[in-house]
Amino acid sequence: MSNKEFTISQGTKVDAQDFRNTVLKYACEILQRDINRVTTEKDADNTIYLTVDPQAPVDGDDFQITLASPDKVTVSAKTSLGVMYGALAISRDVLKIDDFWYWMDTVPTIQKTIQMTNFDMHIPDYQTEYRGWFVNDELLIRGWKDHDSQRYIWQRVFETALRVGCNVIVPGTDVQSQINRNPAKEFGLMIAQHHAEPLGAKMFAREYPELEASFLKYPDLFRKLWRDAINEQKGTPTIYSLGFRGQGDKPFWEDDTSRTWDDKAIADVVNGVIKEQYDMIKELDPGAPMALNVYGELAGLYKKGLVDVPDDLIEIWADSGYGKMVSRRQGLDNPRSPLLDIPNPHHRKRGLYYHVAFHDLQASNFLGLLSNSPEFVSSELMKARSKGLDTLELVNTGNIKPHVLYLREVAKTWVKGYTARSNDEILDDYVNNYYSEHQKEIVSLYEDYWKSVVQYGTHSDETAGDELSPFLIRRIIKTWLGGKDKLSDAGWIVGDDSLADGVKKIDGMITPKLPGWEELVLNLKKLMLNLNQQDAKTLYGDLYLSTLYQADGLKALHLVIQAYELSMAAKKDDDYLKPFLLADEAYHTMDEINFAQSHHKSTKWYDFYKNDGYDDMPLTAIKLRFLRHYLRTLGDTADEDDWERRFIKAPGEARVMTLWTTARELSDDDLAKKLRERLIDKL
User: Fold this and answer.
1) Spatial separation of the C-alpha atoms in residues 289 and 236, rounded to whole Å
2) Could you tell me the keywords of this UniProt record (predicted)?
C-alpha cells in the first residue's frame, strides 16, 4: 500500500473524540454501519477518527480528511455538523452509499476491501445558507414502523436530510415536531418551525382547550407559551419562526369573534405580536436567527404596506403549493400574485418555503409525484434565486419516499453554479442512478406521466395531483345522495355551477386524459415483467403507484359521473341497472389502489400507506360501495331479489314460486359480477 492509500475493511473502526457529543456518536454509527455493509474481509486493524478541532484549516461547516498515518484517517472540522458531513462524504464518495438508500432500497456494491485514495473532499460551495427540509403532513411516516420503531424511521429522515446537504429541519407537524426537535438536534440539524407554530410553542387550544384562542382576551397565556418555548430551545441551533395565524394552519380571526376584523385591525395585531416575540428572543436567546413566514393572508397585508416588523428578520415566501412562484389559492380566492417581483425596500434577507409535496384536500399531490415536471421546478427555483430568495430554503418533503425525484434535484439547486435543467437531463441523471437496465424506456415512462396530468385551471401549472379524484368522488356522492344542488368545497373547479353542470365540466377535463393514463399503467406493467427484481421493486414504488393513483382515481371519478348522469335520467327501476354496475366498477377500480399499496413488491413498504387520511383511498372505496348499494336499493325490490330472479336465474327456476326463494339474496359483489356477465350485450 502506498502512503496515499487507506484500506477500509471489516478491521476498520470508526472512533470519535467524544461520544458524549451526540452528533459525533451518530456520525460514527452511520459510517461504521456502512463500512460493515460494503466490505466482507478484514485487513489490518485501522481507524477513522472523528474530531471537532477549532484549529481545523476550514471554514464554516466544511471538513478536512487527512491520512494521519498508514493506519489512521482523521476527519476534522470546526463544528460537529462539519464532522458529520465529512463522515457522510466518505460513505457517499468512497463506500458509494446512495444519499436516498433508505427510501429507494438501493443495494450497495459489496467488496472484500476498499482502497481510499482521495482525501480531498469538502462540502459543496453552497449558495443557500440555510438548507432545510420541512417534514410536513407526515401521516404515512407517523403511522408506520420500521425495525418495529418510529425512532429508527426519524433517524433515517435526519440522516437523509444531512446526506443531501440540509443544515435545517422542521421535524414534523404540531406535536410531532416537538417530539422530534431534540432528536434532530442530536444529529446536528438546526431547528426551524412550522408557519402555524410560532417560536415552536405549544398550541393554545391544546393547553387551554376550554378557552377561546384570542390573544386580545388572553395575552399573558400566549406570552407564557412563547416564553416557555424560547427557554426550552435557547442556546441550541434554532431559527425562530415569528408570526401569528391562529390555532392550526388558519387565520386567527376565524376563532376570534370579539370584534370586526379589517386589514388594518389584523395588521395591528400581527405587527404587535411579532414585535413582542422578537423582543423576547432578543432577551432570552440573543443572536438567534429569526424568520417571518409571509404566507397566506400575511402576503396580502405585506403587499398593502401594512406589515411593519424589524428588518433583521429573514422573510420566507411560499410558492403556490404546486411549485409556481405565485400566491397560493385560498378557496375561491386565486389572485396568483407574482412573488418574485415584490419590492424589498427594507433590504431584508429572503428565503423560500417550497412544495414538492402538498396537501390541500383538493387537487394536490400527497401520495404521488408532483403534477408539475422536474424541469418546471428547476426553472422556478432558479427564478427565485435570481431575485435573491436564497438565504433560507425549506422544502416540504411530505413523506419523503414518494418525492425522492424532486428532493434529489432540489438539493442540487442549493449549490453555486447550478443552472436550470431540462426533464431529459434530470431524468437521465435520476434513472441512470437508480436503475440498472432499460433506462431509456423508464425515462420515457416518467415523461409520459407529466404529459397525462389533468389541467384543472386556466394556467399551465394548475395541474391535478392524486388528491383530485378521491376529493371529488366523496363530494359528488355526498351532494348527490344528500339531495343538494351544489358541490361543496369545489367552486375552485366548477365555479357556481349546479351539480349536473359541475360534473359535466369535470368529466370534460378528465375524459380526454383517461386513455393516456390507461396506456401508461399497461406499459409500466409490461416493463416490470422484463426488469430484474431490484429495478422492478424500484419502479413499482417510485412511478407505478403514482401512476395508479392518477389512472384508477380518474377512471373511478369518470364512472361515478356516468352513474350520476344515468341515474338522474332514470324513469323506471331497471334504469338503475347500469348506474349500479358503473358504481360497482368504480368501487373495484378504487380498491385496486388499496390492493396495490398493500401488495407492494417490497415487503418493507407494504404497510407504509395504511395511515393515509388525506387521499384516503380506503374511505373513498367505502363511499363507492355505499353508492353501489344505494343504486341497487333504488332499482331492485325491497327484498333485493328481483334483478337476480329476472336476469340471473334460469327462466323455469325464476317462475317457480312454491318456496319463493331457496337462498338469501346475492351480495352486491356477486350480483354485479353475474349481471355484468348476463347483460354485457344489453347495457
Assistant:
1) 11
2) Hydrolase
CATH number (domain holding residue 44):
3.30.379.10
DSSP 125-191: -BS-SEEEEE--S-HHHHT--BTTBHHHHHHHHHHHHHHTT--EEE-SSTHHHHHHHHHHHHTTPEE
Query: Do residues 180 and 85 share a domain?
Result: no
What is the spatial distance between Cα 116 and Cα 112, in angstroms, rounded to a whole number? Answer: 13
Give the count of domains, the chain.
3
Does the residue 1 lie in any domain? Answer: no
Q: Which pLDDT does position 6 carry in this prediction?
A: 98
Which long-range CB contacts under 8 A does 14-22 form with residues at least 24 apart?
14/47, 14/48, 14/50, 14/87, 15/47, 15/48, 15/49, 15/50, 16/49, 16/50, 16/51, 17/49, 17/50, 17/51, 17/52, 18/52, 21/52, 21/80, 22/186, 22/187
pLDDT score for 247: 57
Residues 121/16, Cβ–Cβ less than 8 Å:
no
> In the chain, which stretches have pLDDT less than 50?
1-2, 658-659
Are both 629 and 573 inside the same structural domain?
Answer: yes
By DSSP bridging, strand 46-52 and strand 6-8 are: unpaired
Q: Return the amino acid letter for 10.
A: Q
Strand 290-294: give its sheet, edge to edge: 190-191, 168-170, 130-134, 392-396, 350-355, 314-318, 290-294, 240-242
Q: What is the pLDDT of residue 31?
A: 98
Residue 395 falls inside a structural domain: yes
Q: What is the per-residue pLDDT across 201-251, written as a single tens digit (0 to 9) for each?
A: 998 888 999 998 788 889 999 999 999 999 999 999 999 999 876 555 567
Percent helix, strand, coil in the chain (nearest 5)?
50, 10, 40
User: Rounded to whole angstroms, how far apart are CA atoms 417 and 357?
Assistant: 26
Distances (CA, A) of 247 to 196, 350, 489: 8, 26, 21
Q: Which domain holds residue 498?
A: 451-635
Q: List the one residue out of 212, 219, 173, 227 whose CA is nearest residue 196.
A: 173
Q: In a 3-state reduction of DSSP, which class is residue 31?
A: helix
Report the pLDDT value the prediction gives residue 1, as an integer from 0 to 100. 42
Q: Do 605 and 496 fall within a single domain?
A: yes
479 found inside a domain: yes
pLDDT on residue 662? 64
9 φ/ψ angles, rounded to the nearest 5 degrees: -155, -175
**What are the cell numbers at 283?**
432577551
The one-letter code for the residue type at 315 is: E
Same domain, 517 and 631: yes
For residue 446, what is its C-alpha cell? Answer: 416518467
Cα separation values, 451 from 47, 230, 420, Å? 52, 48, 20
- What CATH number is attached to the domain comprising 346? 3.20.20.520
Based on the fold, state whether residues 60 and 171 are members of the same structural domain: no
- Cα distance between residue 303 and residue 311, in whole Å: 16
pLDDT of res. 297: 73
3-state secondary structure of 592: helix
Q: What is the DSSP string of 538-589?
A: HHIIIIIHHHHHHHHHHHHHHHHHHHHHHHHT--SGGGGHHHHHHHHHHHHH
pLDDT at 205 (0 to 100): 85
